[in-house]
């Protein structure tokens, strides 16, 4: 493994070991930020995650939500916010959150770790910005 991949995977392991069930994303984001991740870009439904890091970039391919040909759901901000709140309250797993985001019409999102914000995108340019709180590890 390259040093960037090692740095990322070790940070992910550490973050998951200390991440609380409720409100865990800000902890994960802060661990990744401290490991040098500047932005994390997700593409749905492929579940491809690109990490823009100090010194380079890493791609991580997850299990796709769908295979074959599918109609893209219409972007529905209210359903996205419902999925976000459920996840923030510990009511869903990460794969369940990704599926709910896709069902709400999200085709991708970007987590900007230095600015503590996430922008969710629909296929027609729709977007929803959500800021998350600063945490201290």
The CATH superfamily is: YdfO-like
Proportion of residues in helical segments = 25-40%
Q: Tell me the name of the CATH class.
A: Alpha Beta
Instruction: Specify Rg, calculated over alpha carbons.
Output: 15 Å
How many strand segments?
A: 6
Strand percentage lies at 15-25%
Q: What's the CATH architecture?
A: 2-Layer Sandwich
Structural class: alpha+beta
Which ranges are low-confidence, i.e. pLDDT below 50, for 5 or more consecutive residues?
none
Helix tally?
4
Q: What's the number of domains?
A: 1
The CATH topology is given as YdfO-like fold
Mean pLDDT: 96
Distance between the termini: 27 Å
3D shape: globular
Major sheet attributes: 6 strands, antiparallel
Give the strand line-up of the largest sheet.
Answer: 3-2-1-4-5-6
